[in-house]
Each structure stands twice: as structure tokens, then as C-alpha cells.
Write a structure and sequence with these properties.
CATH topology of the largest domain: Serine Threonine Protein Phosphatase 5, Tetratricopeptide repeat
CATH class of the largest domain: Mainly Alpha
Structural class: alpha/beta
Order of helices and strands: EEEEEEEEHHHHHHH
Number of helices: 7
Radius of gyration: 17 Å
CATH architecture of the largest domain: Alpha Horseshoe
Shape: globular
InterPro entries: TPR-like_helical_dom_sf, TPR_rpt
Largest sheet: 3 strands, parallel
Oligomer: single chain
Strand order of the largest sheet: 3-5-7
Number of strands: 8
Pfam family, one: TPR_12
Helix content: 40-55%
Mean pLDDT: 76
Strand content: 15-25%
Keywords: Repeat, TPR repeat
Distance between the termini: 24 Å
């Protein structure tokens, strides 16, 4: 059984089953695995993070590295994991941990600092038109939206949208999600005609 819940700017898809199968799927966002088994086949990708409970079993081979954080989220534990990753020279992983921790804490300027470091690494390792670079731009857009800097949010979301359109095409769910994100930002700005334009595209 599947339910979709809307919370302001966010939507949550809920699957109520002891076993969930991912088959050639891209999920633009987070996956919370609560006491279930997830089996994956083909190309599976989660753009944000996988958050399982201890009782969950994840049997997927993801196309790209997926950041995994145990549920319930412990922000101080995230910071400690980041410090440990720095100590053992896992710079990219440390940056991901710190940026998420600061974002959760509402310390947006610090979060932006680490999101920008993450973007710089992605650009240098993957190039300017890789889907993971699009995800980095989208992450920056989201944190600027949370901060209330809507023009910066639109700027980064548009960069992400351009890459995803070029690489994935107009009909991909990740493109629809970005159109929706930009629409939400325009709505927050009070530019409702632009918001409608983007929501209709999604």
C-alpha cells in the first residue's frame, strides 16, 4: 500500500510493507526504511540519503554512493562521524556529514559552506554536467530556500534543472521534482504566475 502526504513544501511517499522492491528506480530525496527489507534490482539511485532503523535490511547495489544515516537521526553523532572521517582522510564523506548536520540544526551559513565544498569536489571529480553535480546544486538551492534567500535558491535550482534536462530528458521524475522545487520558491516569493508555470511543467 502506498500513501502520499503533503507537508507544506514537502511530499512524502509512504510504502506500508515488510518488504519493498526497488527495480531500476531513482528516488529524488530521502528514503526512511522503518523495520523493513528493501531489495534492489537494476539501477537504483537515491539522490539524498537512506535512513534505516536497526531492524531494517537493505539489499541494494546503488548506482552511485548513497549516504546512509541510522534512524533516529542524532545530530551530535553526525558531527562526531564527520570529525572521525576527517581524521582518517575521508574528506568527501566528512563534508557530507557536516553539511547535513548544520542544515538540520538550522545553521544555514555553516551548511552552505559545506555544501559549497561538496559542490567543488563534485565538479572537480565528475565534471560540470554530471547528475550528481545537479544534486549538489539542488542541495544548495534547498538550503538557500530554507534561509529565505529565494533568488539564490532559484539560481542553484535552475543550474540543477539544466543539467538534469540535458542528461535525463523532460519526462524524468528528477526533472519533475526540480520544476516543483522552483515553483515552490516562486510561490514563497509571492510570484504566483511563475509558480504556476513551473508547477504545470512538473
Amino acid at each position: 500500500m502506498k500513501k502520499i502526504l503533503i507537508f507544506g513544501s514537502y511530499s512524502v511517499s509512504s510504502f506500508y510493507s515488510n518488504k519493498v522492491i526497488f527495480d531500476n528506480i531513482t528516488i529524488s530525496g530521502c528514503v526512511y526504511a522503518v523495520d523493513c527489507i528493501i531489495d534492489g534490482f537494476g539501477n537504483c539511485h537515491i539522490t539524498q540519503q537512506l535512513i534505516p532503523t536497526k531492524q531494517s535490511v537493505i539489499r541494494c547495489r546503488f548506482r552511485f554512493h548513497v549516504f546512509t544515516c541510522p534512524w533516529p537521526i542524532d545530530i551530535e553523532n553526525l558531527m562526531e562521524l564527520g570529525r572521525n572521517a576527517l581524521d582518517i582522510s575521508k574528506l568527501s564523506e566528512a563534508i557530507q556529514l557536516f553539511r547535513r548536520a548544520y542544515d538540520y540544526k538550522g545553521e544555514y551559513n555553516k551548511a552552505i559552506e559545506y555544501y559549497e565544498k561538496d559542490l567543488k569536489i563534485s565538479l572537480s571529480e565528475l565534471g560540470y554536467d554530471h547528475p550528481d553535480v545537479a544534486t549538489s546544486y539542488n542541495n544548495l538551492g534547498n538550503v538557500y530556500q530554507n534561509k529565505g534567500e529565494y533568488d539564490k535558491a532559484i539560481e542553484y535550482n535552475e543550474k540543477s534543472l539544466k543539467i538534469r534536462l540535458d542528461k535525463l530528458g523532460h519526462d524524468h521524475p528528477a526533472v519533475a521534482t526540480l520544476y516543483n522545487n522552483v515553483g515552490i520558491v516562486y510561490s514563497n516569493k509571492g510570484e504566483y504566475n511563475k509558480a504556476i508555470e513551473y508547477h504545470e511543467k512538473s
